[in-house]
Specification:
- With 246 residues, the protein is α+β, with helices and mostly antiparallel strands.
- Helix content is 20%, strand content 26%.
- The chain has helices at residues 25-46, 76-83, 105-110, 137-144, 172-175; strands at 90-95, 101-104, 114-121, 127-134, 152-161, 164-171, 180-183, 185-186, 189-190, 200-203, 215-221.
- The strands form three sheets. A five-stranded mixed sheet has the order 2-1-11-5-6. The protein has a four-stranded antiparallel sheet with strand order 3-4-8-9, with no helix packed on it. A two-stranded antiparallel ribbon has the order 7-10.
- Helix 1 (25-46) crosses helix 4.
- It is globular and about 45 Å long.
């Protein structure tokens, strides 16, 4: 099947770096339909209330935001991408969506941005406060056009641990949460390699291992059963809890 990008329906070149994404007729129709769908989902799951993770001020920023887990991706492809400033990095969006495609870093930066200062809590017992910037995951899913029957979002990553590719997942409630973003900046600078450059998930109501780094893809799926070992994430497949709420 021929690959379609996010603006095929409108005949526009979104993946060429369009800065008018919010102004196209196509985009408005997609957002209108998707927003109505996920507003209903929020009402069903949360009784109309959204619980927000605490946010802080720049005075609270940790002097150093350590890395954890993979601190880089040990492949020639990643080293080449790093050397070029990730100019050719792509985030694939697929699965149960009407408009599968890819986003470049330019596309990611052209989307409406959210900046939030939050605390990262690691299952190992340490915490740090950082300022994260990136588009809300909901804006990407709105543009993709999530189909009925979708229940989970799976995040694909470039890094691996012990020979297995890292991945994570969340439900639709967290996917459309306003604090769930695809971050490309930390503390006002490009995301460092140790923290997941060029893109990482910030899913602020959950522990650190849910915040997938080195993102390469987002898949919208009905079930997690047939993905890897079926538990919804690299660490979950090895005994961790799937919902790591804080």
């Amino acid at each position: 099947m021929q690959r379609r990008n996010f603006l095929v329906a409108a005949g526009a070149a979104f993946l060429a770096g369009c800065n008018e994404i919010g102004k196209s007729e196509w985009f408005g129709k997609v957002v209108e339909g998707a927003e109505g769908w996920h507003r209903g989902l929020h009402r069903a799951l949360g009784g109309g209330r959204i619980t927000m993770a605490p946010e802080y001020t720049r005075a609270d920023l940790s002097p150093y935001f350590r890395g954890n887990g993979s601190l880089t991706v040990d492949t020639e492809a990643y080293r080449a991408a790093e050397g070029s400033g990730f100019a050719d990095w792509r985030l694939r969006v697929g699965g149960l969506v009407n408009n599968p495609g890819e986003l470049s870093m330019q596309d990611i930066r052209a989307l409406p941005q959210r900046t939030q200062i939050t605390r990262h809590d690691c299952v190992e017992g340490w915490s740090a406060i950082g300022e994260w910037t990136g588009p809300q995951l909901s804006s990407i899913l709105d543009a993709a056009g999530v189909q009925e029957g979708a229940n989970f979002i799976v995040f694909r990553c470039a890094d691996d641990l012990n020979g297995a590719r890292y991945y994570e997942s969340c439900d639709m409630d967290d996917a459309f949460h306003p604090q769930t973003i695809i971050a490309h900046q930390l503390n006002g600078e490009a995301l460092p390699v140790r923290n997941g450059a060029p893109l990482r998930l910030r899913i602020e109501r959950q522990l650190g291992y849910k915040h997938a780094k080195y993102l390469t893809g987002i898949d919208v799926v009905a079930s997690l059963d047939d993905i890897e070992r079926g538990e919804g994430g690299y660490w979950e497949d090895r005994g961790y809890q799937w919902y790591a709420g804080i």
